[in-house]
Amino acid sequence: MAEPKFMPLSSYREYPVEEMRERAASFNAEMQRRRTVRHFADRPIPPDVIENCIRTAGSAPSGANMQPWHFVVVSDPDVKRRIREGAEKEEVEFYHKRAPQEWLDALAALGTDEHKPFLETAPCLIAVFVKSYALTADGGRIKHYYATESVGLATGLLIAAVHNAGLVSLTHTPSPMGFLNEILARPENERPFLLLVVGYPAKGALVPDISRKPVEEISSLV
Ligand code: IYR
């Protein structure tokens, strides 16, 4: 068993309470501007920006620090086209056969359907994978803990990082997503978690007129 090894918490910064308040309020205001966008411009985006956003995602906490995530950044038009084909095939099934009416009713306000042109228009798709377990050199399995939760946390940071950089994103979850393993040649210990579509919004992009629940509704004080 490995012995724990410790070092000083040198990265921590304490702020005076007033500054703490300002930071919390201004970060909230910044994040409230974030909207999920489905209309993308085809303008290219700097690859180094995406690389830094993925670094941010990789800073998320994870079960037993296993960091059970993998991000595939797709910009190749041919691969994007194949992903669109794979997704739309599943989405046709979803919208016309698989989805119960209750689910379709819940989605009505978003105006989504089986057509996913943004998978080709947007300059960048980030396919997020959960590594359910790691493989050792001799083919053994190392168990991962809270893998799905960990990847959810990393994806949240990724979305915030993309917003902070001045780009927009869409969390897209064609279901099932097994076609992503095939197209992106990911191994069997990786399961697709979601597709994050990233880019600039199209000129005149529209978003659903929906609102966020107030803090009183999403939290309680004990
Ligand atoms: N995967 C489908 C349906 C869909 C499901 C949920 I839950 C959403 O919040 C939005 C869409 C699609 O992408 O259209």
Description:
The chain is of the alpha+beta class. The chain has a single domain, classed as 3-Layer(aba) Sandwich (NADH Oxidase), CATH 3.40.109.10. Helix content is 40%, strand content 16%. The chain has 8 helices and 6 strands, in the order H-H-E-H-H-H-E-E-E-H-E-H-E-H. The chain has a 4-stranded antiparallel β-sheet. The chain has a two-stranded antiparallel sheet with strand order 3-4. The chain is globular. The site of 3-iodo-tyrosine has 9 residues, from helix 3. 3-iodo-tyrosine binds next to helix 3.
H/E order of the elements? HHEHHHEEEHEHEH
Radius of gyration: 20 Å
Largest sheet: 4 strands, antiparallel
Classified in CATH, the superfamily is NADH Oxidase
CATH class: Alpha Beta
Total separate domains: 1
CATH architecture descriptor name = 3-Layer(aba) Sandwich
Query: How would the global form be characterised?
Result: globular
